[in-house]
Specification:
3 domains, mainly alpha, 18 helices, Growth Hormone, Chain: A, 497 residues
């Protein structure tokens, strides 16, 4: 299909418009299902492959490491070489890596395959929404994003149940292998029915050095945190930690001095943008630590099967699916400060309620209340968080701002999954003992809740409620472009969550 046909003129009700939605939903659902399923499968993976707790941490973090380090570069590649082309490459790459995950004979191969999956995710994840933004007419774009979010939400809601069923039934390997038929359906539809699009103004060199430095810094810090429980303060652990911090400093220097950095530090001159990203770090660090440990707690300590554990966490996703749009509308009326303060506090309360979940825990009395409170908090804060990130910069940099915020969320989750077991005193074999894991889980949940309370305090003291529009001068000064006054709660942007 000719590139000129993608000049943002498609309608949602047109045949091509429906194909675009189907393609992007299939692609994003692959990554969403995978992230949902893996946590539920961890105990079975550890048992079958003989992996210790560090192996389980790397099973999660290898994916997040390459995804967080390369997601901004993936978006830039799509803008330059064609969003459909890079999206399709990402889907094929992700499916091939998923096949390798499903066939992995040991934990080392699985971890390496998960890192390859993250590269595919970095190519397809930004391309999914970019295809919608580039393909649809501005009048239909908000509706298209809403349909994409809603249909993707259904996939997320099915994920825990499907993951548990696969783990208890055909086996945990099918949690990865299921991506192969999804890709086989997605790729022909994309090539045959989705228009190509590029950014005609995309030029200059890619910031490959920045991407490499970011990934290396995260890898070194993550390695130090994961290996510390077994190795202690050894020269290797301390050296990797110190070197990781030094490489992170080099990354910031490169981003400050390069003509076209992948993460322009000038964006952080906006106090609102900086504040929202700090809140994002707190929120998603706590979320990632919680869901990593909760899936293990329900199976190792409470004695749930994988299916029961996946289904037990379903209320959070169902609440997000049905109430996120209303939460976004409420935030438009009240401004982001209240929901970004109240939401993390509700999530913190939900995590503290999880302290009631021990051996022979009752689902109705112990698990369900915690999940409902947790889900209510997530509903309250997630949509306003995304909308406020996009509203804090000029229109021309909304995509870049969203990418940076996404990368921040992934990096926060990466560090949390690495650090939380260390801080809670979990040994390498903790997940094999209900008594030991239960004791460390009870130490970890207040830590997660404390990070959320910190995020709420930061939101309350630093996030501003815009009065209808951000000052034009702020857009010009901080974002480096001449732009009209922004509409922070514009529906189109709010749908980008």
């Amino acid at each position: 299909m000719a590139e000129t046909e993608s000049a943002g003129g498609l309608r949602v009700g047109s045949a091509t418009g429906r194909w675009v939605l189907l393609t992007t939903v299939l692609g994003s659902s692959m990554a969403m299902l995978d992230s949902t399923v893996v946590n539920v499968a961890l105990p079975r993976i550890g048992k079958d492959l003989g992996a210790d707790l560090a192996g389980l941490q790397w099973t999660v973090n290898a994916y997040m490491l390459t995804l967080a380090g390369l997601i901004l570069l993936g978006g830039a590649l799509g803008d330059r070489y064609g969003r459909r082309k890079v999206f399709v490459v990402g889907v094929v790459w992700f499916a091939a890596a998923s096949l390798l995950c499903g066939l992995a004979p040991n934990a080392t191969v699985l971890i390496a395959a998960r890192a390859l999956q993250g590269i595919g995710g970095a190519l397809l994840t930004p391309g999914s929404l970019a295809l919608i933004q580039a393909s649809f007419h501005p009048d239909d774009r908000a509706r298209a994003v809403g349909l994409w979010s809603g249909l993707g939400g259904i996939g997320a809601a099915v994920g825990p149940f499907l993951g548990g069923w696969l783990v208890d039934g055909p086996g945990w390997r099918w949690a990865f292998l299921i991506n192969v038929p999804l890709a086989a359906l997605c790729v022909p539809v994309a090539l045959g029915h989705v228009p190509e699009s590029k950014d005609p103004q995309a030029h200059g060199r890619f910031d490959v050095l920045g991407a490499v430095l970011a990934a290396v810094a995260l890898a070194l810090v993550t390695y130090a945190l994961i290996e510390a429980p077994a190795r202690g303060a050894s020269a290797v652990v301390v050296g990797c930690g110190v070197l990781g911090v030094a490489v992170a400093g080099a990354f910031l220097y490169v981003e400050r001095t390069r003509a076209e950095p992948m993460m322009p530090l000038t964006l952080f001159a906006s106090r609102q943008f900086t504040a929202i990203n700090v809140v994002t770090l707190c929120v998603y660090a706590a979320f990632s630590g919680f869901f990593f440990l909760a899936a293990l707690q329900l199976q190792v300590v409470a004695g749930y099967s994988a299916l029961q554990a996946g289904t037990a966490m379903l209320p959070t996703t169902v609440l997000m699916l049905f109430l996120s749009a209303r939460s976004g509308e409420l935030a438009q009326r009240t401004g982001p400060r209240v929901p970004l303060t109240v939401g993390p506090l509700l999530c913190a309360a939900g995590m503290l309620l999880m302290l009631r979940v021990g051996e022979d825990a009752s689902y109705l009395a112990d698990v369900l209340p915690a999940m409902v409170v947790m889900g209510t908090g997530m509903v309250t804060l997630v949509a306003p968080l995304t909308a406020t990130v996009l509203a804090s910069v000029a229109d021309g940099r909304a995509g870049l701002a969203s990418g940076i915020n996404n990368a921040a969320a992934r990096a926060a989750g990466l560090v949390a999954v690495a650090a939380l077991p260390l801080l809670a005193g979990m040994g390498p074999d903790a997940y094999r003992s209900a008594q030991e894991f239960g004791a460390t889980f009870r130490r970890a949940m207040p830590m997660c809740a404390g990070v959320l309370v910190l995020g709420a305090l930061i939101a309350f003291t630093t996030v501003r409620n815009p009065k209808g529009a951000a000052p034009e001068s702020e857009c010009r000064t901080h974002c480096g472009v001449d732009a009209p006054p922004l509409e922070p709660d514009r529906q189109e942007r709010g749908g980008s969550s």
